[in-house]
Amino acid sequence: GDKTEFKDWEKDTPYFDGCLPIEVMAERGRETLRHGPMKPVGLTNPHNPTVKPYAIVQLRQDNALGTLYNMVGFQTKMKYGAQTEIFRTIPGLEKAVFARLGGIHRNTFINSPKLLNAQLQLKSRPNLRFAGQIMGVEGYVESAALGLVTGRMAAAQARGAQCPPPPETTAMGALCKHVTGGFLSGPKAKFQPMNINFGLFPPMDISYRDADGNRIKGKDKTRFRKSKLAARALTDIQSWA
After folding, report:
1. pLDDT tens digit string along 122-144?
2. Which residues belong to any copy of the MnmG N-terminal domain (predicted)?
3. CATH number for the domain formed by residue range(s) 112-239
């Protein structure tokens, strides 16, 4: 569909891969949307459990009356007329009334690895601390988590003490390490916002064998590794909490 043109000042703004406009994803391949916001994995139709959906649209209730629903993950630069035309081709939305059509938002964040120290203070002005999305973390939970960390550090300083960052083996500690440069290296390294993910956690030595000594393989191996990383995080956070 027709798209709204970027203004000169926003033409070179890169997209965050975790929040792409739907038309950009569609341009990457016919199956891309089906593995993104329209991913049908884990859903079962209770009326016909044996038939699995090819793709889905997630509708999130936005008001108490149940008359307003948000199409999750459908940020777009398409013009309103094109949106209405295309969205009404989705089964079930043929007669939908669109209270508000889609757009995209811009997130502004600082180059935290260069600007912040381990106490999440501005290196050039230590009386200033940063918290949340502007630091370069993605997600509501992640932003709130680093807000908590920053708040504890500021409260400790006010008492004449110091609160260390959470252990980097924990989710909050891994995010702190990310925004202060712990996972950034090389001359071409570029800082980008990040959701929490197991790739941010430091590796650990794991024996991939079950209680009977059998080797753990395939997807079970991935789940086993993540369970070990999570267990370590829950143990290590106790020393900080």
Report:
1. 999 999 999 999 998 988 899 99
2. 3-160
3. 3.50.50.60
Question: What is the rounded CA–CA span in Å between residue 22 and residue 32?
Answer: 9
Tokens 């008492």: give the residue. Answer: 159
Query: Bridge-partner residues for 71, per DSSP?
Result: 59
d(CA 83, CA 3): 9
What does the pLDDT read at residue 42?
83
Read off the pLDDT of each residue in 145-156 and give the average, rounded to a whole number.
96
Query: Quick one: pLDDT band at residue 160, thresholds 50, 70, 90?
Result: very high
Please give the structure tokens belonging to residue 66: 């149940």
Short-list 107, 117, 109, 133, CA closest to 191: 109
DSSP characters for the chain? --BPPPPGGGTTPPPPGGG--HHHHHHT-TTTGGGTTT--TT---TTSTTPPPS----EEE-STTS--EEETT----B-HHHHHHHHTTSTT-TT---SS-----------HHHHB-TTSEETTEEEEE--GGGGSB-SHHHHHHHHHHHHHHHHHHHTT--PPPPPTTSHHHHHHHHHTTTT--STT-----B---GGGSPP-----B-TTSPBP-HHHHHHHHHHHHHHHHHHHGGGT-
Domains in the chain: boundaries: 8-87, 112-239
